[in-house]
Amino acid sequence: MQTSRTSRRNFLAFALGVPIAGATLAACGSSGPGTENGGSGGGSGGSYWYLSVDPNETIRRTSLDRFNKANPDESIKGTAFQNDAYKEKIKVAIGAGQAPTVIWGWGGGGLASWVDAGAVEDLTSWFDENPDQKERRFPSSFAAATVDGKIYAVPAETVTPIVLFWNKQVFEEAGLQPPTSWEEILELVPKFNDKKIAPFSLAGQSRWTNMMWLEFLFDRIGGPEIFQAVFDGEKDAWSNPAAIKALGEVQKLVKADGFIKGFASITADTNADQALLTSGKAAMMLHGAWTYGSMKTEGGDFVSGGHLGYMNFPPVAGGTGDPSNTYGNPGQYYSLSSKATDEQKTAAKDFFKTQVLSDAEQTDWVNDAGQVPIVVGVDSKFSGLEDAEWLQFVYDTASTAQTFSQSWDQALSPTAAEELLSNIAKLFSLDVTPEKFAENMNAVIGK
Length: 447
Known about the structure:
The chain has helices spanning about 55-70, 85-95, 110-115, 125-130, 130-135, 170-175, 180-195, 210-220, 225-230, 240-255, 270-280, 290-300, 340-355, 360-370, 390-400, 410, 415-430, 435-440; strands at about 35, 45-50, 75-80, 100-105, 145, 150, 155, 160-165, 200, 280-290, 310, 325-330, 330-335, 405. It is of the alpha/beta class. α8 packs across α10 (about 240-255). The radius of gyration is 21 Å and the shape is globular. It holds the Pfam family SBP_bac_1. This is Extracellular solute-binding protein.
């Protein structure tokens, strides 16, 4: 019998942020066909699967090409997949004992399931032997890479906090100011509705977009300890009074028509929610920092014209959560297959050491993708960049957060995460009460 994952990892202890002199931003990848990296060599050093969609795919492929060119005897074969296709492909491959040598992942609950299956290598000793590799990364990035106090993945790429965006032009024309509290958010809702402008854009069909609201309301009302109790497997943790209040507050926003009409049929994959904000049809949007790039490229002069505003989620009156706290992706994660040969493992570790978050790759993430690698001191690369102000904001948000917590659906086991997303959809459609939501979720604690 497998040990319950929720009793084995400390969601909060590793999430505690440590102010650092580095930077932080973020990105998210999805879509795109499965494409083999033909320039990656014969694959004597094994294989590497990762997500497609540029600019992220090109940056990953370029780093691999650099390694293969410098190490022809250890060449690693790379293959890119769509987000959803990758999730299914890697699940089947791990189950069959045929995982690639280097496994791209999100850490958290998914990684813990791989550990339970004995599919990934313990990298704790590798970090002990290469202390510089740990010291140069943001401390908060190791939370989702750690299971039972051991490190099973190399934190990589970028950090992505969730941000409250707003359209400055819409606010100015309406004669309104951006909110500084949850109560002010609720006060703005009828004012925008009266002007036939949706207060908030939301791609509700995707479900995880709705989850971001609960993450912040739980945190601002009761602090990160509320979800920590869920994570720890405490009985009836979802029924905590602070949790019930948070669930009720989000339904209050739904009932007040706080979201765009028809939000339940809008998907995030098409960036339709972002288009509502950039076009002025919605005044605000709660979303990941990775949306900055697509709003810049697809939103006309919305970003370049200075119409984009952004902030961390505001506090709730009487709440106990630190207003500096944030949620999101503290990094992406590269694991090493336990089924790989010794030769392949050596090649993968050489790749981790020489190319992952190398100076060249850091520059690519910052300059080509407008994202911030999880490297202490990387903010020195912001100077003179067009997006320097945005990069600094994301850095300040992530690096000074009292707690930077991983998104719930990545922190929980796949089983609990799916039940969570299902019940969140019901909560936002008003098909369950806060109490019923809690009852349903209490039934899967620890699973």
